[in-house]
């Protein structure tokens, strides 16, 4: 079954909507599929509606849903209730202190839901921070109050200097921040603080709760207007959900909502939000509401934006450009300074004109990137009719039930016959109890690999992988082991030699670096890639095959290099935004996209790296035959997983063959990071690779 | 010390490969790898067929142009290691002295 982004989005909405009704046949079947269920949880988490999803699923114990889905959602919900309860008590404490300081606070957005619900602190509602509104004349006194209560300013960014709320404040050791507002947003006239205060009532000492219609309008405005249309260019499910919850409430005075929306010219946008809540989450419409002809169009446009990652990306970019053009911040800041309307208008137009060159350049970049993405997407629409994804890596064609985003560059056409088949499913063998590290159990020719806390993998015949994720198994880790240890097992079962090595290539010749953990294989490779005309063949797992003439070939692996933070810094790269290695928090995956080998490359040289403080920049010495073969064996990827006699014999033959065919050299050098440049120079000179212009 | 009259040969549970004139091997029984230098490799090649130890010494003496006595002195501990690791086995123990 195909788990396309659009399908998962529709499924999430369907589940959230069907709180009362029975889930349809199609949806139920989709929920049984662990791959789709994982995607559903992932989307719910990124949309921040996972706790709400739990409440729906928990209310329907009869639904046929994988146990790990229920458990994951349950745990997330419990954590959210805990966090919201903490936030609720912080809010009440702050409000009480505010009364003492002659201030009154008003709970905004999620905070208003929290104070209403003493039992569960609105456990369905995912909160980033606590937003409160304060009388604008007492706005400047708020930081002193927060500091008295032990809060510290969490950001010194200049953008908070003339903002509609103060910089976030938090207590040390806590991740909960409080934002004190003077206005609801940049477009403060849509719902002014005066109106909100005038329609609020006390719910706790010093704490006001806005009238339900003000909260509903704020939810509509926050989404449709404050964020200039659809925030992040998509439909934030969290906001649709909130609107749906207001539609389901009996105490919202919708005529006041619409009257205010009419007064500020926001009716159309509000109706668009209501349409989505109605159509996607089956929210009831208030009496007298009718959906106009625009409703269908709006729904279709919103769904189209969620149909594929590319449309989502494009919508986001266009939304960003629109935000830049609107100059909301300039208008707001002029207003704060009491500027007259003509000067505000002049400033806005000046701002717009000054942005024209940037916007034009951005439009060109977006168009080019969009074309590129479309091209790649068409190429990587490798899912066949059964919804399997096809990739080529380590010289093997992989057909996978789950998408492997790490292999985007290695996607291939679904027409190729697959060597390895990856599925998600149940493993019939029992897992060994109470193990901390990875455990391999081989029985009847099939390997059962247990990665505690992540998944179990059953690897058979060098061609079949079944992964059974654990309840808390992080999907990216589940994939990481498929691409790592599991592929190591596949190679052993197929009798293919895989080295724990980094390899780079110039033209049609590759060199490999092997050596013990921490010897600097990846560092040396990354340095060569940054400064010489070479391509990345593989990092970590280097698969080697031999042709009929006995020539060794290095097969392209993952298009990324694992590096420590300080190595990244030495290369002038930041670790920001890079995926952290799962075991070692300070190690990161640096992806490569341009200088990556696409096809196998002849492997002629293997360097065994050793650290020798006396060797300076490097000393290269040939290693004689038997010792070379022994080093190849010692640097085999997942050597400890070689189990069966026939696997050992095939591995022995391939290792000896490689030692016979390639030049194995010891590269002894002082491993200090500043010296890596000179060592690279030595190796690149042997390879004949040209230095890149600085 | 191994008797010069014994007949020995490579064990069948050993995989062997020639890597640049040296011998690299895997004992399937032990799961251990061994590598031999030039002389060791020569001995291994000679043990492809069953051979009397005394014959082996003679052959080595011809190859390396050394007297039987020193060859025996240097080779017998090596043969003992091969026997201990079960890389070679005794086909015929020879007549007791």
Please tell me about this protein's structure:
The complex is a heterodimer of chains A (694) and B (97). With 694 residues, chain A is an alpha+beta fold. Chain A folds into 5 domains: 5-62; 73-299, Beta Polymerase, domain 2 (2-Layer Sandwich); 308-381, no CATH class; 389-492, no CATH class; 495-687, Rossmann fold. In chain A, strand 6 and strand 7 form a beta hairpin. In chain A, helix 10 crosses helix 12 (267-281) and helix 15 (328-336) runs antiparallel to helix 16. The radius of gyration of chain A is 30 Å and the shape is elongated. Chain B contains 3 helices and 6 strands, in the order ββββαβααβ. The longest helix of chain B is centred in the C-terminal third of the chain and has 17 residues, at 68-84. The model of chain B has no long low-confidence stretch (mean pLDDT 88). By secondary structure, chain B is α+β, with helices and mostly antiparallel strands. Helix content of chain B is 39%, strand content 29%. Chain B has helices at residues 38-46, 53-64, 68-84; strands at residues 7-10, 14-19, 22-27, 32-36, 51-52, 88-92. Chain B is globular and about 35 Å long. The interface between A and B is medium-sized, with 17 and 17 residues.
How many DSSP E strands of chain A?
Answer: 24
Got a strand count of chain B?
6
Named at the architecture level, the CATH assignment of the largest domain in chain A is: 2-Layer Sandwich
User: Which band does the percent of strand residues of chain A land in?
Assistant: 15-25%
The first-level CATH class name of the largest domain in chain A: Alpha Beta
Q: Which oligomerization state do the chains in this entry correspond to?
A: heterodimer
Distance between the termini of chain A: 49 Å
Total discrete domains of chain A: 5
Radius of gyration of chain B: 13 Å
Mean pLDDT of chain A: 85
The CATH topology of the largest domain in chain A is what? Beta Polymerase, domain 2
Spans of chain A of at least 5 consecutive residues whose pLDDT stays below 50 are none
Helix content of chain A: 40-55%
Summarize the largest interface: chains and residue counts: A-B, 17 and 17 residues
Helix percentage of chain B: 25-40%
Q: Describe the biggest sheet of chain B?
A: 3 strands, antiparallel
The major beta sheet of chain A can be summarized as: 7 strands, mixed
